[in-house]
Amino acid sequence: MDRNAGARTEGSLAVAVSRAAREVRVRPARRIDLLAHFAGAFDLAEEQEVGHAARVAYLADRIAVALGMGAEAQARVLHAGLLHGSALIGRPDGAADAGAWVASRFDLDAQVQDALRGIHERWDGRGRPSGLSGTEIPLEALCVSAAHWASEYTDHVDHPLRARRGLQRAQESELVPLVGAHVADALRGVLRDDETWLALWGEDIAGVVARLGVAEGKPSRRRVQDAAAAMGEVIDAAVREPGRAARVSTLAQVLAARLGLSDGVCEAIALAGHVMDIGQLGVPRTILAKPSILTVDEMELMRRHPGLGARLIEGIPGFDEVTEWVEQHHERPDGRGYPEMLSDPDLPLPPRILSVADAYWALRAPRPFRAALDSAEAIETLEASAGRQFDADVLAVLPGTLSLVDELLSEVGAEAAGG
Predict the structure, then answer these.
(1) CA-CA distance, 343 to 354, in Å (whole number)?
(2) HSE-up of 77 (CA within 13 Å, CB side)?
(3) Which stretches of the chain drop beneath a pLDDT of 50?
(4) Which residue ranges form the domains of the chain, and what is each CATH number?
């Protein structure tokens, strides 16, 4: 078929590139600035409302302060609180300590990983997985456990006064066997503080938690890139094949550069490639793993994931464009995509690039109903939908980028192996 079928004219491509090339620069940030918002994905996986992990982290931090723990220990408590639901994601190798594995992806230290392993232990020794008791359990884990216990009575209440009443009626006799008398007393003191309740019901609890991370170091673009790449690995472990996020990110960035987009746009597209399917953590696993055609209802649930993903990341500093592109990466040039059915000229170039990069690597991976396609077969399949499902100009430059993409991915793999 004619590869340029449905393509823009040279002038219209220049206009599309110009529109996409408005000033976009990834803002420096700290790891916790991203992690406080990424944690909402673990809420979705845990079937909790977005914000649950941030509230647990906030309460756990206040408990740590009440106990007189130092700044480094408080930072560990914050991280463990944000990641406490990540154990449901699963490790690529099937090992049990998924929460600790997720922490390692974000380059969090061994003490944070130990805290995550200990969150389901109990002071009375009746917890899991190791039956630890008393001071055998990391204090950071006990802070998070106490905060989670309190959240059970507050998360699904629409007013702080009702939540307070619920906690007053709660059987505190169950708290001491869970976390010990010292941590239980600290939690009681925290819950008597009006400022605590105002923060828990504020509109930006993730932002509040991020601002508590005073031990996180200086903001940098490298920290943003590393955190996004780590989240991509976690998404792959949960819903896709390993390495998918890195492949999509690299291909999208190279395609963007080949089409003449600015360095700032290319960098932002690379970030979007890592995190664009974060909303899939809110889609039931039975749907994601279904080998046959989805029903209408199942497809509607699946089509929620771009909007869910955008909602999760929209509060990250400097992620305005990334949020927009994540929400639009399943839109189509012919207007038959989702969630907004955008079409020319309302569909920007970056999400068109992400769509092609994502579809190419999806075709290269095996599925229950077909074997993996080779590069030529994948390109031919994409070209059959040029100008309709996929942007023809992006497809036109795809074949010429693949050798560079393979080279870059090999370098990344070598770095990872050496690290």
Answers:
(1) 15
(2) 32
(3) 1-6
(4) 10-25+220-418 (1.10.3210.10), 32-212 (1.10.3210.10)
The Cα 72–Cα 246 span in angstroms is: 31
Backbone angles phi, psi at 138, to 5 degrees: -55, 140
Contact of 39 with 213, CB cutoff 8 Å: no
Residue pair 218/264 in contact (Cβ under 8 Å)? The answer is no
CA–CA distances in Å: residue 120 to residues 262, 299, 400: 48, 35, 51
| Backbone torsion region of residue 21, taken as left when φ is above 0, otherwise alpha when ψ lies between -120 and 50, otherwise beta | alpha
Contact 57, 253 (CB under 8 A): no
Residue 229: closest CA among 404, 70, 412: 412
Name the nearest CA neighbour of 28 among 245, 208, 217: 217
- For residue 246, give Cα distances in angstroms to 17, 217, 222, 243, 397: 24, 26, 15, 6, 20
Which residues are within 8 A (CB) of 193 and not within 5 positions of it... i.e. 6 or more apart?
A: 62
Tokens for 72, please give them. 């480094």
* H or E segment and range at residue 146: helix 139-151
**Where are the extended beta strands (E) located within 246-329?**
none
3-state secondary structure of 360: helix
Identity of the residue numbered 328: Q
Count other C-beta atoms under 10 Å from residue 206's C-beta: 28
- Cα→Cα distances 14→19, 21, 25, 259, 393, Å: 9, 10, 21, 9, 11
Overall pTM surpassing 0.70 (yes/no): yes
Give the pLDDT score at 370.
87
Q: Alpha-carbon torsion 380, 381, 387, 392, what sign?
A: negative
Which pLDDT score, from 0 to 100, does residue 418 have?
Answer: 61
Q: 328, exposed or middle or buried, with CB in 10 Å at 0-12, 13-18, 19+?
A: buried
**How many residues make up the chain in this entry?**
419
Residue 143, pLDDT score: 98
Please write the tens of the pLDDT for every residue from 244-284. 999 999 999 999 999 999 999 999 999 999 999 999 998 87
Q: What's the pLDDT at 91?
A: 80
